[in-house]
Amino acid sequence: MDISPSLIQTLQTAFPGLQQNEAQRIVQSGQVQFFPANTTLCHEGAYETAFYIILDGQVVVTKVINASETRVLKHLSSGDFFGEMAIIHNAPRAATVSTSQPTTVLVLEKEAFSILLEKSSSISLAMVREVSRRLRENDEMAIEDLREKAKELAQAYQQLAELEVARNEFLTVLAHELRTPLMAANGYLQMIQTGMLQEGDLRSAIEVIGHHIQDITSLVNNLLFLQEMNLILPDLKPNNLIPIIKNAVEPYRQIASKSNLNLTLSLPSQELIVRAFPKALERAIAAILDNAIKFSKPGGNVDVIVLQNNHCCQIKIIDQGVGISPEVMPRIYDRFFHTDRIGDNLYRGIGLGLSIAREVIQQHNGTIEATSIPGLGSEFTVTLPLMV
Asked: Per DSSP, what are the bridge partners of residue 99?
């Protein structure tokens, strides 16, 4: 067999210290084979009896993680080898090896490999040295992988702990948000039943009861809507955005007036056609507007400005309220996260509004962004794609 110098050099690269005559014996004990790209040479989990030395080309080593994810472990090229564990320990392949480009390999079957090692102590020493180095590398990779898994597990436990805290806080706040209006309404009802209130006082009491019932209804509707969002994908159809925004804003004019706020709405003259589920999108805009009004200072402005920008439209909701602190900003869209106190001011709520808004807007292939200066106000910008 005519053995080229480059082949000998490749084997000496694979096994440093290997003499030329020893490299020749290795070549004579194996078979040089060519494989096109995307050919699988070793199958993970299979019992196979070949040892491979790459002479030219490249292979990729992959392993299935968590029964579904295929992870690339490494790329091997000329002078690298693989498959040694299958002939040393009769072990199944630990990974799958496939050619990523046309590749030439020297294939040594188990029997020939064993005879070669028995006849030459120097070849055995060179191979054992390199196999040991490879095993150390694999151990280091396994240890690093375990470190990553431990880190991911620790992060998962931390997230679970945070979710448990959030859940407990949510249940506490929810109970408070339901109990407070129920107790107030029940108190007024008892006064009405006993005849303690007459005429003007009676009308005021009925209005207060209605207000509290409306609060409870709004809270329950938000909870049900959030559950509905998780179960049913919205049916998006072409809709003019202008009426949707008007329907979201108009109910808040009276609320803003009672809070001594100036609510303005600026709309373009032309139609803005978007793919939308009007009920959901209206609720999302209303949730952002409700948040702006709740955290605004009496005497300030809340502006809703709608703009067309190329193939998108923007809905800006700007307030002159208490603002959002930088440490709170990353959490404002989290479910059940809410700010109950800023300075001396207390704020009601269970932290669903902005969470609902973001999920709805994302379902509409849009984005929501917030900027704020604590003490001066906030600006929320909703961007939606227009139908062209």
From this structure: 59
CA 151 vs. chain centroid, Å, equals: 17
What's the token pair of residue 6?
Answer: 């480059």
The tokens of 175 are what?
A: 């109970």
CATH architecture, domain defined by 151-230 = Orthogonal Bundle (1.10)
DSSP string of 202-258, one letter each residue:
HHHHHHHHHHHHHHHHHHHHHHHHHHHHHH-----EEEEHHHHHHHHHTTHHHHHHH
- Higher-confidence residue of 227 and 117: namely 117
Please, which pLDDT band fits residue 81 given cuts at 50, 70 and 90?
Answer: confident
pLDDT band at 337 (very low <50, low <70, confident <90, very high): low
The CATH number fitting domain 234-385, selected from 3.30.565.10, 3.40.1050.10, 3.10.20.600, 3.40.640.10: 3.30.565.10
Q: Count other Cβ atoms within 10 Å, centred on residue 45.
A: 10
Q: How confident is the model at residue 60 (pLDDT cuts 50, 70, 90)?
A: very high
Lowest-confidence range among 17-21, 169-173, 336-340?
336-340
- Angle (nearest 5°) at CA 155 between 151 and 156: 115
Q: Give the architecture-level CATH label for domain 5-119.
A: Sandwich (2.60)
CB 313 within 8 A of CB 361: no
Give the integer Cα–Cα distance in Å for 202 and 368: 45
| Residues 6 or more apart whose Cβ sits within 8 Å of residue 155 | none
Determine the pLDDT at residue 180.
78
Distance (Å) of CA 158 to CA 5, 166, 168, 350, 362: 58, 12, 15, 22, 26
Q: What is the pLDDT of residue 214?
A: 77
Q: How is residue 174 written in tokens?
A: 């929810």
* C-alpha–C-alpha distance, residues 144 and 126, integer Å: 27
Residues belonging to the chain? 388
How many Cα atoms within 13 Å fall on the side-chain side of residue 242?
11
Mean pLDDT over 156-174 rounds to 75
Q: Is 160 helix (H, G, I), strand (E, B) or coil?
A: helix
